[in-house]
Amino acid sequence: MRTIIRKELGQFFSSMTGYLSVLLFLLLNGLFLFVFPDTNLFDAGYATLDAFFRTAPWILLMLIPAITMRSFSEEFRAGTWEVLCSRPLTQAAIIGGKYLAALLIVVCALLPTLIYVWTVARLSTAGIDSGGIVGSYIGLVALSAVFTAIGIFFSSLSANPVVAFLASAFGCFVFHTAFTAIAGLDFLRGGAGYWVEMLGIEAHYRSISRGVIDSRDVVYFASVVAFFLFLTARKLQNR
Asked: Residues 108, 139: contact at Cβ < 8 Å?
């Protein structure tokens, strides 16, 4: 698995595309937090990172499919999948290596955003909600883990990286937003709407962002990741 991880990291950072993807993620978050109206920190009048934690999932929704789109589709397109399968590696090691490498790249993109925490702490006179910020970062990592699993799965469906990117972005959007939107429909308001909303990522992300780690949220994120990695394994077996 370590061989796969090193290979994936080397391929991603072997060109300017990888670095530009991470820089674009940081630039967009910085613009939303410090420049754009309605979301920037200075117009809010108080030191908070709420705007960052609201917009970051939407930017990750585009960044992560861009990272994962070549994971398997490029192997299929270039004809190297058969060569990879001939190596002394199990299918679980291949899938796990590609998944962990992509998730590690996302975590590396999130680490520089800790400068935002330092900036807000310096601007604040009353202190910051450390528990909420830690919870929100845990939520971002958990959300990234799900998006990465979705991206890996859709990359295994096509030999065209662009198709894999578009399908991954749509899949991430559906799991992040669609269930909450459906739960808000009039005929689902009440008990049924709650259970529909719990199927989506957004409700669990909001729950963790409050600073309380609920076992139900942990089980949800772990289950969705396992589900999509299982689907990836089944797809590769059929191939």
From this structure: no
Q: Among 236, 237, 234, 207, which Cα is nearest to 220's?
A: 207
> CA angle at residue 90 from 87 to 95, to 5 degrees?
105
Among 125, 140, 120, residue whose Cα is nearest residue 53: 140
Locate 46 and state its tokens: 């108080």
Identify the burial level of 140 via C-beta atoms within 10 angstroms of its C-beta, where 0-12 means exposed, 13-18 middle and 19 or more buried. buried
User: How large is the greatest C-alpha to C-alpha distance in the chain, in angstroms?
Assistant: 60
- Start-end of H helices in 13-80: 16-34, 41-44, 50-68, 73-78
* pTM, two decimal places: 0.90
The total number of structural domains that make up the chain: 1
Q: What is the DSSP letter of 154?
A: H
Q: What is the pLDDT of residues 10-31, one digit of tens each?
A: 888 877 777 888 888 888 888 8
Integer Cα distance of 37 and 158 in angstroms: 40
Asked whether the beta carbons of 80 and 184 are under 8 A apart, the reply is no
d(CA 187, CA 142): 31
Q: Which has the closest alpha carbon to 129: 55, 49, 206?
A: 49
